[in-house]
Amino acid sequence: MLLNPLTLHLPKTPLEAARLYKELEDSKVLAGGTFLLNSMKLLKTKGTKTARNILSLAHVDGLKGVSFQGDTLTIKAMTRINELFESPLPDGHLKILHAVCRNISTNPIRNMATVGGNLTCRYTWTEMGAVMIALDAKMHFLGPDGKEEIMAPEDFFKNAARSEKLFTHVTIKTGQAARTAYRRVKKTIHVDIPLLAICVKTEIKGKKWYNTRVGINNGVAFAQRDPILEEFLNNSSSSANLGEEALEHLTKTIYDTRSTDYKQHMFRISLKSAIEELCHSRESGNP
Amino acid sequence: MNVNLTINKKQHTLNLKGNETLLEVLRDHLSLTGTKTACQETECGTCTVMIKGKAVLSCITLAANIQGEEITTIEGLAQGDVLHPVQQAFIDYGSVQCGFCIPGMIMSSVALLEKNPKPTQEEIEYALDGNICRCAGYPKIFEAIHEAGKNIVSKGSIASKS
Fold first, then answer.
1. pTM, full prediction
2. A99 touches chain B (CB under 8 A)
3. Is the dihedral of CA A112, A117, A121, A124 positive or negative?
C-alpha cells in the first residue's frame, strides 16, 4: 500500500462536514488530494505517522461551482482549478484568475486540485493566496454550529492558514474598475516549484493610482500584503519609471527571506514588469 | 467498505480499504496493468486514467472516494479489435519508443480530443504537460495527436463514446 491505514469519512452536507472537521481527532481534510495524498505517501516512506482520519469533501453537496450574484463572484471550495479556468469571467481584473489557473502545475493536477485546497492546504508554495489578497476577496468558513465566519485572506494567512471552521467558498466583488497584473516564477520551466507569486491590483484615474493591493507569496512564508509598496503606489502616478522606483519602496522582510540572489532578482524584475504592465494598460487605453 | 466503480463500462463492487488508491485497485484487484506505476508522486503521468472524461492521476486518487464514478483506462479505449483513433495514430506515426509513458499519454490525448478534436500545438502541449516521456519522443506523439484529431473529425465520432 502506498498509504498508511486510514478511515475515510464521506459527509454529504456542508454542516455534517463542518461538524466532523471540528470533532475528528488526528484528521486531515481531503479536497483534490494532490498535495495531501502525495505528502502522506512521502511521510509513509520515511516511516512517519500520518493522519488516521481523512475527511473527504468529494461528496458534499453545494461545495462546487463558480457563479455570479449581482456584483459578486463566488467560487466554491471544491471547484477544480481547471473548472475555474474554463468558467466564463467578465472582462476586466477578474480575468487574472484564468492566468493564475493556467500557471498551476500540470493538466491532470489542474483537473484534480481545488481552489479550496490551494488556499487552505497550509503549504506556502501555493498560488491562489497572493491573488486572493490582491483581489480583496473574502473567505467564508462554516462552523459546527452552522454559523458562517468571513475572513480576509491576509488575516487567514497571518494565522498560518489555520481555522477551526470549514472553508466553504470565496467571494470577490466584480464591479470594481480595477486592473490586475500577475507574475509567477517557477524554479525551472520543467520543475513546478514556485519560487514566488506576485499579484498587483489597482485602480487608475487619469494617471493616479488608487486602492492598490499587492499580494506576495515568497514561497517561504504564507501569502501576505506589502504595505510599504501599496502606500508608495497609492501616492504615485503611472510613468515610465514607476516600476523601477517601486523597487525602492518594498517591505524588505518579505523579499529577503532566505532568498537566493536568483530569487531576489526574479522578484524584482517580476514586480517591476507587473507595475509597468499596469502603467501601460492605462496609457494604451486597454481595458 | 464496499465500493461501486464503473470501469471501462463494466460495473464492479469491490471490498476496499480506505487507503487503497485507484492505481492499486486497477492493477492489483482488477489486473488492469495497462495503467502504469512509476513515480507515484504526481510527476510523471504514467498512471493517468479518465474520470468523467477528465485526465486524472490514479496514484493520488483514493478508490473509495470516487464511489459511483465512471472510469476509463487504456484497456477501455479499443472497440474489440478496432483501436481508438489515438491508439492507431500512435502506431501509424511511430510515437512509441520504450512505451512506458504511452498509456498515460494516450489517456491525456483522448481526454483532450473528446473536448477539442482540432487542438492547436499549444493546446496539445498544455493538455499533455503532466505526461513525461523519458525517451523525449514528443514530436512524434504530437504529430499522432494532430492526426488522430483529424481522423476523429472526419469520422464524426470517437470510438470510446460509440
1. 0.93
2. no
3. positive
